[in-house]
Structure prediction request, 76 residues.
Amino acid sequence: MIDPQAIQAKLTAAFPGAEITVQDTTGTRDHFFVAVLWSGFHGKKLIQQHQMVNKALQEELADERIHALQLKTAAL
Prediction:
């Protein structure tokens, strides 16, 4: 389990200036919806954007603190 604020902080560090939303979708602190709107995504395909977010959260995904992750990404 992980706090949404910890995810927010990690993504804020990885994507400076981004608009980031983190929601615990089940109340169990392991299923999340994350939206990242960031100017650095310009020119990147959707799969590349998602890979970048997954890479930023790779430790939390690997040790299953994040069990399910629904992503929405877009360029600002």
